[in-house]
Automatic annotation (TrEMBL):
Annotated protein name in UniProt: Alpha/beta hydrolase
Gene Ontology molecular function, alphabetical: triacylglycerol lipase activity
Entries under Gene3D superfamilies matching the protein: alpha/beta hydrolase (3.40.50.1820)
Pfam families xrefs: Abhydrolase_1 (PF00561)
Keyword Glycoprotein belongs to the record: no
Biological process, per Gene Ontology: glycerolipid catabolic process
Keywords noted in UniProt: Hydrolase
Domain AB hydrolase-1: start-end pairs: 23-274
Span of the signal peptide: none
InterPro entries: AB_hydrolase, AB_hydrolase_1, AB_hydrolase_fold
């Protein structure tokens, strides 16, 4: 799994499958490592005949961390209230350009792009600003950032943004808090605590932290632009759960309504996660969209 300097930052990535097939690029969400796209999801795409690339966004995983003048959410809010952005700030368009730089480095002209949560906004930017590079767009549990959309459940946002125990000093407390959050966002689907614990431990071993402050700032800078959605002409699939506590279902419906000729896959009981049992359903919808 190589590390390359692209756009003056280090991008860590992994390639699965044969290079003689169409490429699927997977874009992760806020504070998430590339491993948020599970091995099983990646392998199912490989089995369907695709080369799969996943990568760590800047400020997460093993990619570069960008020093930000704001050191906590409170300081970031102070900057924004003054109509300013802290030094070191970037937009989601910069992450989109990181992804394109990776495709350029790998000599991939076009790819199918999947994005989850914040990654779905990055996919919107790639499809609208660089249409010649996007074979199709699959936008999962995401938002357009339209300001009048329903907001996340306050208790879930509190869990997401509150300080975590130090994993090295209090690993059990960290795991318990993380598992509580995973349960809270999983909708009606049960979670495998043992498997989730293994994933958390592996992620903390490969990269102990993420700079979600930088990525939150990037989302704020990016903001909402309906023209961004209206000019997307790539085949587009919007996947959203009925029980998403972070981006309620209306967020996915809003994206689908704004993108011309898009397909909306509404999944009953799905929250803000992709349970393994839904891999096949999502991938089949992606295949059907592209076949049409």
């Amino acid at each position: 799994m190589p590390l390359e300097q692209l756009n003056n930052i280090d991008i860590f990535y992994q390639i699965l499958g044969s290079e003689n097939t169409e490429t699927v690029l997977l874009v992760s969400g806020l504070g998430s490592q590339m491993t948020s796209w599970s091995e099983s999801f990646c392998q199912e795409l490989v089995q369907k005949g695709f080369r799969v690339i996943r990568f760590d966004n800047r400020d997460s995983g093993c990619s570069s961390f960008i020093e930000n003048e704001a050191k906590n959410v409170g300081e970031l809010i102070q900057f924004l209230q003054q109509g300013k952005f802290p030094k070191g700030a970037y937009s989601l368009l910069d992450i989109a350009k990181d992804a394109l730089a990776l495709l350029d480095f790998l000599k991939i002209e076009k790819a199918h792009i999947f994005g989850r949560s914040m990654g779905g906004i990055i996919v919107q930017l790639m499809a609208s600003e660089f249409p010649e590079r996007v074979l199709s767009a699959t936008i999962i549990m995401s938002t357009s950032l339209r300001p009048d959309l329903p907001q996340a459940q306050p208790d879930v946002m509190q869990m997401m943004l509150s300080p975590m125990p130090d994993f090295n000093k209090e690993p059990q407390a960290f795991l318990e808090k993380r598992l509580t959050f995973i349960k809270a966002i999983s909708g009606t689907f049960s979670i495998d605590e043992k498997a989730e614990t293994e994933i958390i431990n592996k992620e903390k071993q490969r990269a102990p932290s993420a700079n979600i402050l930088g990525q939150i700032c990037a989302m704020t800078i990016t903001g909402f632009d309906v023209k961004r959605l209206e000019k997307i002409n790539a085949p587009s699939l919007v996947v959203h759960g009925t029980e998403d506590p972070i981006f309620p279902l209306a967020c996915g419906e809003d994206i689908s309504n704004a993108i011309p000729h898009s397909t909306l896959l509404k999944i009953e009981g799905m929250g803000h996660s992709i349970p393994t049992v839904l891999n096949e359903k999502i991938i089949q919808a992606f295949l059907k969209m592209n076949n049409n």
